[in-house]
């Protein structure tokens, strides 16, 4: 028995793991995969979740599917939709289909991810019989449907299919790192002689759940029966990168697969865990909790090359002169006071630069806001416009600043309807 082996008992079955500290909430029936049936053979109205499954030899990439991923950043932000707020439209035949703006962004992202998948897997020794996932298009987000509800359901299933491509790319990256490739995976994408991918896009990818192979990105994992291990070559890779693997232990140790010998628990460990379960001892360990860390945050006030379409696949501008923001850069000087927390003001930023920067940020937010958010913002702005200016009988307190040694003149006020608060910005004269 390994010193790092964790033993679990659930419904009379014993499970062990070298990489997970607890069992998932739901243990699937064995087997979930049908070797004679593709994952995409289910009808359009099927909503099969991408949950933890039993190991299937042809899909060694499946355990790397990110668990509860956050679709944000400049690459995956276009997938950030809920079924309730997802936009659809009616085509010329009166059928419902995913809105064309969303379709265009999904098609572009699909082409880029498939391009990465192809190049990252080139030259690798892939296990015999490995079956790559179907592209998201095959799941039907470009098809029309009889009602909007079905169109949204199919679109969300297609959205989840992007995670299959992402998992395959992560599996290729993990395989290269495990075997000690002399060429970094980022260089493979950036140094393609025909269509090099811009450095900024690749760096963004490396910070996403595709390139981040640390434990900060929870993975779906997989179950393996102790009698048969379909991933004899892949198992050491999964263990090295702490991918959750659970082995259902067979009481007959003689039938345990040789690759899973280090997963055999001692009888004492089984007895200890069984007694704890019988006493009803709570399990404080958590599984599948999202990490609070963020990735893919835009830099330089949101200015990015990811939106420039000058190449065949629309990766962005590969080189040449970069665009320059017309927003005045705030000069951080130790002579300026530190702004109040949550004020949104940068140190050394005057009121003009503050208003210009916030105006640009608000414009970007408005371009991406949902219909419900737009309605809420309009209501706040209408309510703010109907308010009368504070008078003597008003309970609102207004401060009038008089010039002093700091040469602070009368304060400017800005009402920000989207935050429902009044920000007072001091204008400091040079």
Tell me what you see in this structure.
It is a single chain. The chain is an alpha/beta fold. It is 29% helix and 8% strand. It contains nine helices and nine strands. The strands form three sheets. A five-stranded mixed sheet has the order 1-2-7-6-3. Strands 4-5 form a two-stranded antiparallel sheet. The chain has a two-stranded antiparallel ribbon with strand order 8-9. Helix 2 runs parallel beside helix 3. The longest helix is centred in the middle third of the chain and has 31 residues. It is globular. The C terminus is likely disordered.
> Main β-sheet: number of strands, strand sense, barrel status?
5 strands, mixed
Q: In order across it, which strands form the biggest sheet?
A: 1-2-7-6-3
The topology string of helices and strands comes to: EEEHEEHHHHEHEHHHEE
Q: Count the beta strands.
A: 9
Shape: globular
Instruction: Give the helix proportion (percent range).
Output: 25-40%
Low-pLDDT windows of residues: 35-42, 282-312, 317-334, 405-430
DSSP strand content: 5-15%
The radius of gyration computed from the alpha-carbon positions, rounded to a whole number of angstroms, is 27 Å
Rounded mean pLDDT is 75
**SS-derived structural category:** alpha/beta
Number of helices: 9
CA distance, first residue to last residue: 72 Å
In quaternary terms, these chains amount to: single chain
């Amino acid at each position: 028995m390994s010193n790092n082996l964790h033993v679990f008992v659930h419904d009379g079955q014993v499970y062990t793991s070298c990489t997970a500290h607890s069992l998932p909430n739901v243990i699937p029936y064995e087997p979930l995969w049908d070797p004679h049936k593709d994952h995409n053979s289910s009808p359009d109205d099927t909503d099969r979740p991408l949950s933890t499954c039993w190991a299937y030899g042809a899909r060694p990439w499946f355990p790397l599917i990110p668990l509860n991923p956050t679709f944000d950043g400049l690459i995956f932000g276009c997938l950030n939709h809920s079924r309730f707020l997802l936009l659809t439209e009616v085509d010329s035949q009166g059928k419902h289909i995913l809105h064309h703006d969303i379709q265009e962004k999904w098609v572009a992202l699909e082409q880029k991810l498939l391009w990465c998948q192809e190049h990252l897997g080139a030259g690798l020794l892939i296990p015999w019989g490995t079956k790559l996932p179907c592209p998201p298009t095959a799941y039907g987000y470009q098809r029309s449907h009889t009602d909007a509800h079905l169109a949204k359901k199919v679109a969300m299933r297609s959205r989840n299919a992007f995670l299959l491509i992402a998992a395959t790319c992560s599996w290729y990256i993990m395989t290269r790192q495990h075997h000690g490739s002399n060429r970094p995976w980022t260089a493979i994408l950036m140094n393609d002689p025909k269509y090099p991918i811009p450095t900024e896009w690749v760096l963004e990818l490396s910070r996403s759940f595709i390139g981040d192979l640390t434990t900060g990105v929870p993975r779906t994992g997989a179950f393996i029966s102790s009698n048969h291990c379909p991933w004899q070559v892949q198992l050491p890779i999964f263990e090295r990168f702490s991918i959750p693997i659970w082995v259902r232990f067979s009481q007959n140790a003689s039938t345990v697969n040789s690759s899973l010998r280090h997963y055999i628990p001692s009888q004492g460990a089984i007895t200890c865990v069984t007694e704890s379960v019988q006493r009803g001892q709570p399990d404080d360990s958590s599984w599948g909790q999202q990490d609070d860390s963020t990735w893919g945050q835009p830099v330089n006030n949101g200015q990015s090359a990811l939106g420039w379409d000058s190449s065949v696949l629309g990766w962005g501008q590969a080189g040449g002169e970069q665009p320059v923001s017309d927003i005045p850069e705030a000069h951080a000087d130790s002579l300026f006071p530190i702004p109040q927390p949550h004020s949104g003001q940068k140190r050394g930023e005057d009121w003009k630069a503050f208003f210009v920067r916030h105006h640009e940020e608000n414009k970007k937010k408005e371009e991406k806001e949902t219909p419900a958010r737009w309605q809420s913002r309009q209501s706040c702005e209408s309510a703010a416009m109907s308010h009368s200016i504070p008078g003597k009988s008003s309970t609102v307190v207004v401060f009038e600043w008089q010039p002093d040694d700091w040469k602070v003149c009368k304060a400017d006020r800005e009402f920000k309807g989207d935050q429902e608060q009044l920000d007072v910005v001091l204008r400091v004269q040079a």
